[in-house]
Every structure is written in structure tokens, then in C-alpha cells.
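Input (structure):
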């Protein structure tokens, strides 16, 4: 899994849309505010509109705005909308990648890591990340829940 520039920019576009809740903001303004190349921002905006995360209105007072409840959209949903696989290894997500997966000692480990990542990102909403209030620690809570009941201290 690679949180690439496209993902980073998409998250920043959504942050601005969230901060300007109820108002439309132009892609040009977001591009300037967030140091995102304009053409790249337009491309990402299109993907986020297609995924239902943003809505757009044309015209002098148009722009984009959030089209979803940020507490209903998980970070997993966003990664999927951007076409990013939530996986740590090609062998665990592509059945044709390696013919030895049935006997490989590492394949099950990579699948387990993928499951942890998937559950982690499904436990965190866009609103959780963007909200600076009482839900600020939900990310840490999601991680703690992922490992709940698991003794990670090998020396004990």
C-alpha cells in the first residue's frame, strides 16, 4: 500500500471542503491553498465527485463542496474510491502474482497484515480525522481495538 501524492492531495481537497461546509470553493482556490497542481486537483476532484464524496456546481459562484457525511465515510472507502489497494504486498492481493502462495510461509502473514489494515481504515471515518474535538483520539482507539487482547510484548 502506498499513500501516494494523489491520495494526499485528495485528502487535502476533502479537508478544505469540510472546513467550508455548506459553501462552494473553487478548485483553483484549493489548488492555491494546498499547493496542488491545478490540473491534478481537477482530475482528483472528478474522481471524488464520481465516488459521491464531492458535488460540483458550475458558474461564477460555483465550485465544489462536500457531498457526504464525513462520519459515514471511512478512510477505507476513500482509499477504495481513489483506486488504492489496502494491501502491504502484491502477493496477498494478486492471485496470479506468485504461484507459491499455498506453500509460502509469508503469504498468510501478508494476508493478516492486509486484514489489520483494512479493519483499521474501516474503523476511522473522514470526520474522525478532520474533527479536532472530542473524537480526536478515535484513531488511537481504533488501533488499540485492533490489537485488543493481544499480548504484543514477546519478552513477557
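Output (sequence):
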Amino acid at each position: 500500500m502506498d499513500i501516494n501524492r494523489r491520495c494526499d492531495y485528495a485528502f487535502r481537497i476533502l479537508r478544505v471542503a469540510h472546513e467550508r461546509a455548506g459553501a462552494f470553493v473553487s478548485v483553483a482556490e484549493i489548488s492555491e491553498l494546498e499547493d496542488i497542481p491545478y490540473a491534478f486537483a481537477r482530475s482528483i476532484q472528478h474522481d471524488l465527485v464520481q465516488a459521491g464524496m464531492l458535488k460540483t456546481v458550475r458558474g461564477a459562484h460555483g465550485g465544489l463542496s462536500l457531498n457526504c457525511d464525513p462520519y459515514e465515510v471511512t478512510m477505507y472507502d476513500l482509499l477504495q474510491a481513489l483506486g488504492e489497494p489496502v494491501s502491504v504486498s502484491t502477493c496477498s492481493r494478486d492471485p496470479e502474482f506468485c504461484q507459491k502462495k499455498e506453500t509460502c510461509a509469508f503469504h498468510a502473514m501478508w494476508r493478516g497484515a492486509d486484514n489489520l489494515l483494512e479493519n483499521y481504515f474501516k474503523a476511522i471515518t473522514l470526520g474522525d480525522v478532520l474533527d479536532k474535538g472530542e473524537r480526536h483520539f478515535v484513531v488511537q482507539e481504533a488501533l488499540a481495538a485492533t490489537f485488543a487482547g493481544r499480548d504484543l510484548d514477546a519478552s513477557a
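Notes: Residues 77 and 122 are 8 Å apart (CA to CA). The chain is about 50% helix and 5% strand.
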